[in-house]
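dumping this here so i dont lose it
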């Protein structure tokens, strides 16, 4: 338990009225609500910075025909930096094509569908620029925005490819 606020009430020359009590109650409710909001913000900030999965918030960029053509980085967590090698200070406010000019069109198209429709998506794919496989869960927090939660699955994918190759070799040598 901790003290979240202290309020002092000065003595009045006259008795406190119902209006005085109401005003003090409103003030205290406001102080309490602000303390709860700050506590919730701190909790979610810790969750955002401590989670193992990469998280990124983006804004989709549409052309005159409403087609997704690019997206802007709005925020990323430390795990996103670790999983991609992209640094928050260098990418927030920039578009993906500024940061990674060789980004495959399907990444932008998939994200565009989610940002425009609000229908979440789960997919796995390879990023040529980052040279890694990712599992990506995408959802729409606000219209024309999308958030990604990503996991590096490169080791698993490489193991699957190796196993397929070994199975092929085994079948062809028998």
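and the seq i came up w/
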């Amino acid at each position: 338990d901790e003290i979240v606020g202290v309020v002092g009430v000065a003595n009045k020359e006259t008795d406190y009225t119902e209006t005085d009590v109401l005003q003090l109650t409103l003030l205290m409710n406001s102080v309490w609500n602000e303390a709860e909001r700050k506590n919730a913000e701190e909790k979610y900030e810790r969750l955002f910075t401590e989670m193992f999965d990469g998280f990124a918030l983006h804004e989709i960029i549409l052309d005159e025909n409403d087609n997704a053509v690019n997206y802007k980085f709005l925020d990323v967590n430390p795990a996103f930096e670790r999983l991609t090698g992209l640094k928050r200070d260098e990418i927030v406010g920039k578009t993906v094509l500024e940061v990674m000019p060789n980004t495959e069109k399907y990444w932008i198209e998939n994200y565009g569908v989610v940002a425009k429709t609000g229908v979440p998506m789960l997919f796995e794919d390879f990023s040529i620029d980052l040279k890694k496989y990712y599992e990506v869960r995408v959802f729409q927090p606000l219209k024309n925005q999308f958030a990604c939660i990503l996991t590096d699955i490169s080791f698993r994918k490489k193991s699957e490819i190796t196993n397929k190759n070994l199975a092929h070799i085994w079948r062809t040598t028998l």
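The CA atoms of residues 126 and 162 lie 16 Å apart.
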